[in-house]
Amino acid sequence: MPDSTFLRWPFFEDRHRELVDSFSRWAAGSLAIDQDVEPRGSELDTKCRSLAKRLGSDGWLAHAVIAPYGGASASLDVRSLCLMRETLAFHSGLADFVFALQALGAGPITLFGSNDLKQRYLPGVCRGDSIAAFALSEANAGSDVSAMQTVARRDGDSYVIDGEKTWISNAGIADFYVVFCRFPEATDRSYVALVVDASSSGLEVTSRAEITAPHPIGTISFKGCRVPATSVIGVPGKGMSIALGTLDVFRSTVAAAALGFARRALDESLRYAVNRQVSGIALADTQLAQAKMARIATDIDASALLVYRTAWASDNGAPRVTREAAMAKWYATEAAQRAADDAVQIHGGRGVIAGSVTERLYREVRALRIYEGTSEVQQLIIAGQTLAHFRAESTQTPQSGTPK
């Protein structure tokens, strides 16, 4: 079992400790990555819908939306989201994916949407009846999302969307997409976020991609796709702020998922090393194995501190946690990749057997260093925020004389 002493840190309240206790027991009984057969193709879509329905019917998706639309509280509790993603990732990468996309896909509506949009979409997400998707990336607008080319043109009481979005999780199984577009005027760098039902005329899933860890992901195109103006989330022109504000909240949950994968890597490594005999002694008693386990354990605690600092700040009214979330995502995802690699190495040949826990962890972790902003993008964000703070302080504080 993973170490849970971190729950005694001052970041948490009793309700968080109670949530982890009940949710961990549910996950241990319902999810086990070493017993699942990885689904592909149509079986993958069916499995994702089944997981969403189970998470909804058992009440866990109540933490992905807000009250009074079925949610557990009046606002998103980021610490709860992080603890749940960490728990799910420990047990099943696919279950974590399903939970995360319900929260992220509905996130712009939850955080910025009108009451009418919330009433229309959030109860279905909470029940697991309606699958959500977040459509931001494009072929030439991944790291630089401001370069998007998908446009939304106002036409009477509607918007007409033209363009293409790629690397969209839940493409093909989503019931609705939150789509980010720019306005077509050449001099206008403003953007808009729209909720588009999957059944809308002019929306088409043009391709699906197979990635290292099976998740439904693909490309969607819009050709004269007409949606009512009431589908706008927030204020027209503020779509980029909505996208970045949503990512601010959910990047820390990506880091939490990485933390769950790292904890599973350490758990598997400890269990194997204690029982594996090498030259008459337990592998766990060799210095080389101990060095790897020490690094994983230290990386886990460092990641957890960064993750839950960010989540605590979000829950306690910080207007933005851009820098903190970038630090958490960068460090935790890179650390999880090191942990998975070390776990494979500790297991030796057993570590690379297709379908084994360690081999699957290795594949599951890798994508986390890319989506919702690559590691390199997180470094740019951290540096930019740090420099901006320094320069702002420098203009306000007189420079001291040169010491002699």
Question: What characteristics describe this protein?
Answer:
404 residues, alpha+beta, Butyryl-Coa Dehydrogenase, subunit A, domain 1, Butyryl-CoA Dehydrogenase, subunit A, domain 2, Butyryl-CoA Dehydrogenase, subunit A, domain 3, 3 domains, four-stranded antiparallel beta sheet, 10 strands, 16% strand, globular
Please provide a written account of the structure.
The protein is of the alpha+beta class and 404 residues long. It has three domains: 5-131, Butyryl-Coa Dehydrogenase, subunit A, domain 1 (Orthogonal Bundle), CATH 1.10.540.10; 134-237, Butyryl-CoA Dehydrogenase, subunit A, domain 2 (Beta Barrel), CATH 2.40.110; 241-392, Butyryl-CoA Dehydrogenase, subunit A, domain 3. 51% of the residues lie in helices and 16% in strands. It is built from ten helices and ten strands. It has a four-stranded mixed sheet. A four-stranded antiparallel sheet has the order 2-3-7-6, with no helix packed on it. A two-stranded antiparallel ribbon has the order 9-10. The longest helix has 37 residues, at 239-275.
